[in-house]
Design brief:
mainly beta; seven-stranded mixed beta sheet
Length: 122
C-alpha cells in the first residue's frame, strides 16, 4: 500500500528555483530515511540529498549550498528546495524512502516514487 508521489517539477531558466515535494502514504510504521535521487537517460542514478528521521541531512557535492532537503513528519512529506539551477541539473528527480511496514515489521524496505521532470534551460 505504500506510495510515494512527487510533484513540483517543471521548466525553469538557468539561475531560477524550484521546490519539489513528495508525500508518502499507506501502512507505514516508521520512515527512517527520505531522499531525492536523479536519473539522466543513459546514466546511473545519483543521490542528490538525504535526510533521516532525526533531521540529519547529506548532499551530493553538486547540490551543496544550492539545494535544501527538509521534511514534515506529521504529514510524511519531504521537500527539495532547488536554487541557482543550472542546465546540468536537468533530470528526472525521484523521491526515495526507507520504510518499515506492518508486513515487514522486522526490517525496512526501500520505496521509489514515479519521478518528476526538472528541465533547466540556458
Amino acid at each position: 500500500q505504500v506510495q510515494l508521489v512527487e510533484s513540483g517539477g517543471g521548466l525553469v531558466q538557468s539561475g531560477g528555483s524550484l521546490r519539489l515535494s513528495c508525500v508518502a502514504s499507506g501502512s507505514i510504521i516508521r520512515i527512517a530515511v527520505m531522499a531525492w535521487s536523479l536519473l539522466t537517460p543513459g546514466k546511473a542514478g545519483e543521490l542528490v540529498a538525504t535526510i533521516t528521521d532525526e533531521g540529519r541531512s547529506n548532499y551530493a557535492d553538486s547540490a551543496k549550498y544550492r539545494f535544501t532537503i527538509s521534511t514534515e513528519s506529521a504529514t510524511k512529506m519531504v521537500y527539495l528546495q532547488m536554487n541557482s539551477l543550472k542546465p546540468e541539473d536537468t533530470a528526472v528527480y525521484y523521491c526515495n524512502a526507507v520504510i518499515r511496514t506492518p508486513e515487514r515489521t522486522a526490517s525496512y524496505a526501500p520505496y521509489w516514487g514515479q519521478g518528476t521532470q526538472v528541465t533547466v534551460s540556458s
